[in-house]
């Protein structure tokens, strides 16, 4: 009996009887209650990216992806306002919210709610250079100008040095930057044996909060006991974890009660995953009974970026910088309307997507911005090209040349999110009359006696649907059976992709080598469709929001090797960096070819770890030469 007791004591010796006690545990809280996420990649995917970028560079990219950009980029609707007028209005809103020129008290511009921080914020803002070092505000232009080199390029000196500023990128004077700040240290009020009250949110909710959103009811996953309306709560993130069946899950039941001890769900996994502090707008019971509403009003954020909810509706549109640049090369939702504004709402843009809801989103955005030149269809991009007999009854029984003339009367055509077909003014300076055989503006003499079939179809739709948002359109979405080959002068393929360039990103484990290769195969099939829709002399623009070279440079290689009549051409404005040169050999022996030397400067690759501080993005522009 005594020997068993001695053995039990020996086994317990050296083991703590409580999960959190002693000074060491208290000191560790600074490491727990902070924001220091680390992206976990599939090992094979990580090896692939290290081969493409190098280990050090890819580590910087992974870190940058977990943080939001240091600024917000908004596009001014120049059909309704001017850049200077919008800046003046934003300054007035900022002054009303008590912001002035300091980003330390960055608020939600949409609600004019001023952040009440417990700790003095960084008054000079911060920016991280390519080596991960923080740069004071006075060095903004120096760092942003370098963009990976020692020589300052004036066109890189484009990001905000004040709270609100106009872009000085050539051709993008309708773009306004709003500076944010962070990361900020937050005092979560931890006391020995008394952890702060806490709300755990889903990963997608957290990513939205890092971009300036509030915590809404659907995003709340778990909450401390006895949380009442008005309580101060810490907000942490539940990120998916690997499961034994090779899937990923948070392994948490919504509504779980948190005790603030190590038996809580994902207790250790939430170390360094705290995104801010806020005020509970409902009791714990209310949060998990309600179906909608704000659960936590974020008052103290790790990253402080303005929200533009209901701000200057119709005059501005929040959009990342690479997407704005894409519109100039030729460009879903936001890009479609960007082209329409660049065309001064003249001609016709055909925007299509296989998703009913996405088509409705385009319609609503166009109506909000007051654009009338956008026609929408529900269409699978893999079926964009149809046989001539499939359209003969609906369009014309004339020859192909006659159809080309009619098709050219559409100044622009876009397949949103899948394939975008655009005939627009060349933003580099050449107008459509310089590159097309026929232009609507040059057909004024024919308008009195002849109306194009596109115009007739548009008028019939307006008569049938009546006035409304974008003449729409209610919940009506028209289907399309595709278009005849060589129907358009410009095509944008804004392909669905792995989206590994979007930020902030707190999870990346789902992508495998196989899934990345499948994305690339799907994009090649869409490109095969897009290339058939463009006339000789036309333009194809290809864009993605991923850092994966298999979906970017490898697609360019496929296009140039498969379609000898395609050529890469320079883009204006040129804001992104060069593409990747080289290749990668997979374990099955397949060699993925990327760009060849000399081609890298003809594409634009936006690196999230570069001083320009954008999302990861890629743009390639092809000209369609006559087939030989």
From TrEMBL:
Residues 488-625 form the SAM-dependent MTase RsmB/NOP-type domain. Residues 397-417 have a biased composition (Polar residues). Residues 397-422 are annotated as: Disordered. Gene3D superfamilies: PUA domain, Vaccinia Virus protein VP39. The active site is at 545 (nucleophile). Pfam families: Methyltr_RsmB-F. S-adenosyl-L-methionine binds at residue 494. InterPro entries: MeTrfase_RsmB-F_NOP2_cat, MeTrfase_RsmB-F_NOP2_dom, PUA-like_sf, PUA_sf, RCMT, RsmB/NOL1/NOP2-like_CS, SAM-dependent_MTases_sf. The keyword Phosphoprotein does not apply. Keywords: Methyltransferase, RNA-binding, S-adenosyl-L-methionine, Transferase. Belongs to the class I-like SAM-binding methyltransferase superfamily. RsmB/NOP family. This is rRNA (Cytosine-C(5))-methyltransferase NOP2C isoform X2. It comes from Rhodamnia argentea. The gene is LOC115746909.
